[in-house]
Design goal:
about 220 residues, globular
Length: about 220
């Protein structure tokens, strides 16, 4: 693969207020890195899936690079990132290769489609992202508990976390699945999920949305 995508989750036992403040200042430390195609500094929801309540102990940085070399340079040379890691208690890094994507994130879709014939043998990561229309916020949030229960009860889901840029309005989820078959069973055979998808379309909940599936290339955790 030429394009290189990563998402790093940072856990904080201490320095939580410092980590929270970085949401306002991170763009200047991320924006000018060579080879960087796309980046998002994301907060997370408490518990699993979408949540009205932020998780002030967990943040994530999603980056897309034109090659792995630029990602390595970022890890080794970006002083802000080094400080961010040192202040966290642990990190979890997912390296991803997108193979199906549709929709937009802030007017662009930074992901390439790199389909692999061995798809059924790989773990799959799914990111769903939506900008919720202000007039639809109540409808959306009333449907959230049912959506979260549906995915958590599904066979083959290994991890599920709500992520987002702006509480209540700019929301996303990241989930890890055992394989492509399991995510397809959830997406197309689960009535609860299909009912929610119909609601989003019929009621025009989203001003913008994006759906992307990735192969999980690697998943590593480190203590700071």
């Amino acid at each position: 693969m030429s394009q290189f995508t990563s998402i790093i989750f940072f856990k904080f036992k201490k320095n939580k207020f410092w980590a929270f403040k970085q949401m306002a200042f991170s763009n200047k430390h991320l924006y000018n890195n060579s080879g960087l195609i796309f980046h998002k500094h994301l907060g997370t929801g408490s518990g699993s899936g979408f949540s009205l309540w932020p998780d002030f102990s967990t943040y994530a940085i999603l980056t897309v690079w034109s090659s792995e070399k630029f990602y390595s340079d970022f890890l080794n040379n970006n002083n802000w990132l080094k400080k961010y890691i040192s202040k966290s208690s642990s990190t979890r890094t997912l390296i991803l290769n997108p193979y199906f994507t549709k929709g937009l994130w802030d007017g662009v879709n930074p992901f390439e489609n790199n389909l692999d014939k061995n798809i059924l043998k790989k773990k799959v990561v799914v990111i769903t992202r939506a900008k919720i229309r202000f007039s639809k916020l109540i409808q959306f949030w009333l449907s959230v508990p049912k959506a979260s229960r549906a995915i958590l009860k599904s066979k083959g889901v290994l991890f599920y976390k709500g992520i987002g840029e702006l509480p209540f309005i700019h929301q996303a989820t990241l989930s890890i699945w055992r394989n492509e078959f399991d995510i397809n069973q959830f997406a197309y055979a689960k009535k609860d999920h299909s009912d929610i998808i119909k609601k989003t379309r019929n009621n025009n909940w989203y001003g913008e949305d994006m759906f992307t599936r990735f192969y999980l290339i690697s998943d590593s955790e480190n203590l700071s």
